[in-house]
Amino acid sequence: MQKKGVLLVNLGTPDSPSVSDVRKYLREFLMDKYVIDLPYIARWLLIHLIISPFRGPKSAKIYQELWTENGSPLFHYGKKVKGLLQNKLGNDYTVELAMRYQSPSINSVLKKLKSQNITDLVVIPLYPQYASSSTKSSIEKVKEELKKINFNTKVRFVENFVSNPKFIEAFAENGLKHWSTGKYDKVLFSYHGIPERHILKDCDNGHCKLDDNCCSIYSTKNTLCYRAQCYETTRLIAKAMNLKEGEYQTAFQSRLETRARDPWLKPYSDIVTADFPKNGIKSVLAFSPSFIADCLETTIEVGEEFKEIFHENGGENWQLVESLNESPLWIEALEQLATK
Q: CA 208, 140, 60, 24 torsion: positive or negative?
């Protein structure tokens, strides 16, 4: 019997929070030319001699804090979503989950799909906004592994789902649980940052200005602009929540500047967070809409580190909006993406 396949691809997670496993994960992740686009030798020296040895133990402590009895939340919810989507799509589909880095590998999962006589394959990188360091990297890896195993099937790639109504509704639903209490002065939409040069490479049509005016309209001219996609996500969620202008702000987190004069997307979330209390904003509701499941960047960075920064600067109430995880609306969004 012929079946259609759905391959969900997320970034990945260490196999355990041990220093050795975290170092292994960091090396594979950061050696990706789409993540750190330095020449190979320079990238190898930076990752193997500086970042992995020194950042490994520190990152392992953070992963130990993040880890639960179910293991990595990213992987735990990935498996849950895989099962829920399989139930939603029924027997005509086979749904699988792979990680761009570490386990389960894209290669091993594609081999599994090939053995099941899959005739049509939909690949959904689980990154709402397209970026070369996440979406493109995952798509190119899938293409590479398909060739390696001689898996000749019809493939459709979902490059982003910024405007998917169910995706927007799912985040808005989570946010309204908190916002409707009336306890918050401001909503912060914090997205994973990337170097500005990545966007300029993706948008080499001369249109991209990397400013709020340029990103205020999402169109065919800036369809590959990660920053414009983030601002569009903010606008759509804000509209679904009936937020007014001035009640929300977009910013960017997780910067890793490896070169002098190498700016990442602005404004920076940690600086915006520190400035909120100085401007009379004492209670903040924080989203991370570039992540669809609990992970280090949401639970630890936004949920704990930004909360500490906020309180240190005079803030009183900081609340992280939970990720989509296994939200029924999120499963409906994936169903739409898989079958459209």
A: negative
